[in-house]
Specification:
Layout: E1 7-10, E2 15-18, E3 24-25, E4 30-39, E5 42-47, E6 55-56, E7 59-62, H1 69-81, E8 85-96, E9 101-110, E10 124-129, H2 130-138, E11 145-146, H3 152-161
Parallel strand pairs: 4-9, 6-11
Antiparallel strand pairs: 1-2, 2-3, 4-5, 4-7, 5-10, 8-9
């Protein structure tokens, strides 16, 4: 049997409509938690092997069905770094259309600071002081760089640097 259903682009592709039954279909959006983890004046940043050389960012990962933001944040940070977190607070969100994600930014406090990096998730992770982060942002000569400007990770890193929230 061949379906008579044909999907047409509506609103320049923001929707698809079935020509047979007129049902609208919307693009999938996957929620992702991204967490700025703090411990004694430092933040935890990780590095993926697929990122530009030297770039470090906040730890992040996809939420699982049925998870709250707080549970997903704690699970992702623990899975990637073996760091347990508490005082998890929502900060902001950012659509990230490639791939179809909604970045949900949180800040949290670390209970421990000993790192055991999951090498299938991260190439490396480190604790960075405000001085180290500020110098990396200011200097083009730095051996590492925080997340790119315009990303929600950079937004929450900048908030932390400026002592906001």
């Amino acid at each position: 049997l061949q379906s008579t259903m044909k999907l047409e682009k509506i609103l320049t592709g923001w929707e698809l409509g079935c020509t047979a039954c007129k049902v609208k279909h919307f693009p999938r959006t996957d929620p992702v938690v991204i967490v700025l983890v703090e411990h004694k004046g430092k933040i935890l940043l990780g590095r993926s092997a697929v990122w530009p050389e030297g770039m470090y960012s906040c730890l992040a990962g996809f939420m699982e069905p049925g998870e709250s933001i707080e549970v997903a944040a704690a699970r992702e940070v623990y899975e990637e770094s073996n760091v347990k977190i508490t005082d998890i607070n929502y900060i902001a969100s950012q659509p990230w259309p490639f791939p179809a994600s909604l970045m949900i930014a949180c800040r949290a406090k670390a209970i421990n600071n000993d790192l055991e990096i999951d090498k299938t998730e991260l190439e490396n992770a480190k604790w960075f002081s405000k001085k180290e982060v500020a110098l990396a942002i200011e200097s083009r000569e730095s051996k590492w760089k925080p997340a790119r400007e315009g990303s929600i990770a950079r937004f929450i890193i900048n908030m932390w640097l400026e002592n906001k929230r």
